[in-house]
């Protein structure tokens, strides 16, 4: 899904869709080269000089990947639909009318599930031209004064601890999780699998996003949370350690904060561009929650659980990771 910084809200939406930078979707559609074949089109949205840039990567067996870009979703899809219509006409297939196809639809941005997610992004109420279909998700309670200093660049300099090296996570995260997680997990009455199934549906009632006195955004308890309760899952893209290191360097080059969490010696969860709101949990010397790597049949999950009773409205805080 990507993310939508507040500074980009005025330009990254239309009346029917919101365009989060980092959004990516894949679809199968008629080939531009053969009238009766299909190929894969990977659609993505990026930020270029403060404006959205829509791109399509055409992946077809036997050909090199072709990348098309434009400033609008329809503009870039027209570069595909034109040749497709010509190939279909040559082979006598049903005629295609590109003029009636909307770029937002072809990008998947108007699909109900995608629309619900984009309408829950922080600050989307500032999208003045957009017509909401489902209303704003109450999980995200967020004032729009994101940059108190008035400059996004200076905000990143003010909060440098976002840019932690993955190496630091490599050394300490697993040992910290093991020594803290083992002591509290044995007190669970229900199995972790049953608690996790409940968490997948109830986590939105546990927390909400708001401004933090620690720094930037933070995660707050939406209700009283008892000790040892699973609060939220830390989700994102699962990467190999080597890929995570390269991604972090790329984020730093773009002056973008990095949100990464190590699962084990080989895998890292990168929540920088996609993931759950758990990435906004701030670190503290007086934490009230603990991170635990839990193993299920389908793999490993990073679960944030309450280390003590957390009162409604209290910020959820975890322990800072440091190098040996």
TrEMBL record:
Q: What UniProt keywords are attached to this protein's entry?
A: Metal-binding, Nucleus, Phosphoprotein, Repeat, Transcription, Transcription regulation, Zinc, Zinc-finger
Q: Name one GO biological process term.
A: positive regulation of transcription by RNA polymerase II
Compartments where found: Nucleus
Keyword Transcription found: yes
Catalyzes what?
Answer: L-lysyl(4)-[histone H3] + S-adenosyl-L-methionine = N(6)-methyl-L-lysyl(4)-[histone H3] + S-adenosyl-L-homocysteine + H(+)
Q: Which Pfam families match?
A: FYRC (PF05965), FYRN (PF05964), SET (PF00856)
What's the EC number here?
2.1.1.364
Q: Could you tell me one molecular function GO term of this UniProt entry?
A: histone H3K4 monomethyltransferase activity
- Major subcellular site: nucleus
**Signal peptide location:** none
Q: Which residues form the SET domain?
A: 205-321
Q: Which domain of life is it from?
A: Eukaryota
Entry keyword Zinc-finger: yes
Q: A GO CC term?
A: MLL3/4 complex
- Alphabetized InterPro entries for the sequence: FYrich_C, FYrich_N, SET_dom, SET_dom_sf
Q: What name does UniProt use for this protein?
A: [histone H3]-lysine(4) N-methyltransferase
Give the organism's phylogenetic lineage. Answer: Eukaryota, Metazoa, Chordata, Craniata, Vertebrata
